[in-house]
Design a protein that fits this description.
The chain is built from 6 helices and 2 strands. The protein has about 90 residues and is mainly alpha-helical. Helix 3 (about 25-35) packs across helix 5 (about 50-65). The longest helix is centred in the last third of the chain and has 14 residues, at about 65-80.
């Protein structure tokens, strides 16, 4: 499972033994943005655990950190062409 940016950066090495990539988007988003779920609510001026807060968190995961997982899949495909990827929200 790729849960931190370093995992994405070394995806070509991981693909030598992995048959697929699984992305832990919650942890990956938090480490990409340098902010925890608890911090994001106050930083974004949203109530913790509100629907809006969860929606913003998912938005960040989808938009801001997408380049990290795209990079991992590209690197993985160079080592293991056609490697599959799945996302755990």
């Amino acid at each position: 499972m790729i849960e931190v940016p370093r995992g994405a950066l070394t995806a070509d090495e991981i693909a030598q033994t992995a048959e697929f990539f699984s992305f832990g988007t919650n942890d990956l988003t938090q480490t990409c943005l340098g902010m925890s779920r608890d911090d994001s609510g106050s930083s974004l001026d949203l109530t913790r655990n509100s629907k809006s807060s969860r929606r913003i968190h998912r938005y960040d995961s989808t938009i801001r950190c997408r380049s990290t997982d795209h990079m991992a899949v590209e690197k993985g495909n160079k080592t293991r062409p056609g490697i599959k990827a799945r996302y755990l929200w």
